[in-house]
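Q: How do we represent a protein-ligand complex in a form that can be generated token by token?
A: Start from the inputs.
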Amino acid sequence: MSELNEIVRKHVVKNALDYGKANAGAVVGRVIGELPEAKNDMKETMKIISKAVAEVNKLSRVELEGEAANYTYAEKKVEEKKIVLPNAERGKVVTRFPPEPSGYPHIGHAKAALLDYEAAKEYDGKFLIRFDDTNPEKEKAEYVEAILNGLKWLGVKWDGEVEYTSDFMPQIYSYARKLIAKGKAYVCFCAADKVKTNRQEGIGCECRDRSAEENLNEWKKMLAGEFSEGKAIVRYRGDMSAENTVMRDPTMLRIIKAKHYRQGTKYSVWPSYDFSVPIVDSITGITHAMRTKEYELRDYLYYELIRELELRPVIIVEFSRLQLKGFPVSKRLITPLVEKGKVHGWDDPRLPTLMGLKRRGILPEAARKFALSSGIGKSESTAEIEQLLVENKRLVEPTAQRRYFVKNPVKLTIKNKPGRSEVMIRNHPTNKELGERKVKISDVFYISGDDARELERGSEFRLKELYNVKIVDELTPEFFGEYEGEKIVPGKKLHWVSDKGKVKCRVIVPGELFDGDTFREESLKIDSGYCEESCEKLKIGDVIQFERYGFCRFDAKEGDTLVFIYTNP
Ligand code: ATP
Ligand code: MG
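Then emit the structure tokens for the protein with adenosine-5'-triphosphate bound:
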């Protein structure tokens, strides 16, 4: 084959694999990109492409995959963007993922954790996990567990032991003391409201004027538990008139008396995020601290604390938050939905939590690719769930077994039926390795309500993998048909479930939870009907394709009903 022919063929095959069918227009750019001379005779190039498209579109998926394996695609590498860190030295990079254990991990956390993890890998460095657990009111061991499980599911591996910010409290206290002693922090007794308005208006309060010595004394009392919650806070002495409002004497430590899930009642003074993160990042050896862009204004404070406390410097690297149209990708939004019972738990398939995605039938590899697809860039964009579903389907399609499910079943009785009592049906249209299954039949079937609606006396169609049928009678809601031979003729092919081998089946169809900012009450739809008996043998978690319906994950058996969750078309 000539070079042009081969390059064309290779891109046409890839295009067919990616989109189901190849399209000449979609391929031409790639061909010219790889072989610029192809532009010299566009007419000839287009002719070759069209011919290849026609040939390739006749191939099955398995054939396409077999052929694609012989080619190398330059763009394969580009798909996962390389992560470039500033001032990074091979072998010396240390990154960390610092979740607060205050909820279940979601796809946004996956993006953050994967970027940290991949960046460390890129530079042969280390990747650490540290639970940022300094608010005992919000944190639980259950969430630590869930986050670690989520990371394992994604295939993220961390170096060394899992760390906890709350294990660094002695160091954090000693840095607090240092800051107070230098006059760079003070104990403030003002009411929360006053602190807030003063900060808005850029006014300093009288607590600001106390000497370092007096402040150290108040600090001691604070640690000794002499003040009640909300009575005193430690504030950084920034600049009350700073343009960047973060610098208007931000809170460094506050009193929270609740019992901590890990430290018990050992501490009642807890650092803010702003105070603990630079300290612990620095003392645990982090070189590059990655965080989402919304913290941008806080970067200045981070660097200033590092300087004032004479800590080893850390470089902050920013990336954009992952947003998903119709889904709340934030604990702040997800938690109330779970707590108020608006969704059925953290693993509700409508949620973008990792457990929700898993339950919906999303493979970790698809979640990973999707989360990383926007890379380290700072530009904000809202992704659509379809991007994730398409990626997932690409991974699931080649091996998902096919089954029949009839929604809103309608009875169909066949007269003069051939005397067969079972039929063998292939489990996959092209993947022969998946074998076949035996399905019991008699003269009574169920077809889907949608298909039945289009039938009338005289309608002809084929029962998939069986024989042709002509409708001879309709006694709403039942149909009666006649056996019309087995010769395959063009026309409608309906899937069915036999009366002899039917199981009650329910499919939960998750929809988008939000329309803009409005919660959609009807975001969950249920399809009910019968599926075939062989579905009884599925294991929880198996993903199959219900033919002419969609990919579904087997979720549970409730009484005599099999429950599935709809993944994608
Ligand atoms: P949430 O808004 O969900 O409450 P958070 O920032 O409070 O998120 P943390 O547990 O503190 O949750 O987050 C740990 C890390 O995950 C942080 O670096 C945070 O920036 C990052 N992260 C959280 N949500 C997203 C998102 N949607 N996209 C990318 N990264 C995110
Ligand atoms: Mg947070």
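The pocket of magnesium ion (ligand 2) is lined by residues 100 (CB under 6 Å). Residues 464 and 495 are 5 Å apart (CA to CA).
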